[in-house]
Amino acid sequence: IRALRGDDPAERTDALRALSRLGAAGAEGVPALAEVLRDDPDPSLRRGAAFTLAAITAGDAESALAFARRA
User: Fold this and answer.
1) Residues 62, 53: Cα–Cα separation, whole Å
2) For 1-71, where are the alpha helices, taking DSSP H only?
3) pLDDT tens digit string along 10-59?
4) What is the DSSP code (8-state) at residue 41?
5) The whole model's pTM is what?
6) Separation CA 20–CA 50 (nearest Å)
7) For helices 61-70 and 30-39, what crossing angle results, to 10°?
8) Cα–Cα distance, 14 to 38 (Å, whole number)
9) Residue 63 has pLDDT above 60, yes or no
10) Helix or strand (DSSP H, E) at 27
11) Which of 40, 34, 39, 54 is nearest to 11 (CA)?
12) Are 42 and 9 in contact, with CB atoms under 8 Å apart?
C-alpha cells in the first residue's frame, strides 16, 4: 500500500497488480486506491486503480463505489 504513494510509476503499477490479486483481502488498500483515482496525474495508474478496486469488490460496481466514497 505504501508503494501506491511512491514516486516511481513502475512501483505503483506493481502495487496495483499485487492488490488486485488479493481480491477482498486487499480491502485495506481502498483508501490508497481512492487517492490514486482522485489525485494521480497518470491516467494509466488511475485506470489501474479502478480495475484494482473492481477486483477487490469482485466486480460489484455498487460495492466499489461505496468503498471509494468511504475512503
Assistant:
1) 11
2) 9-22, 30-39, 43-56, 61-70
3) 999 999 999 999 988 888 888 888 889 888 999 999 999 988 988 887 76
4) S
5) 0.79
6) 10
7) 90
8) 19
9) yes
10) none
11) 40
12) yes
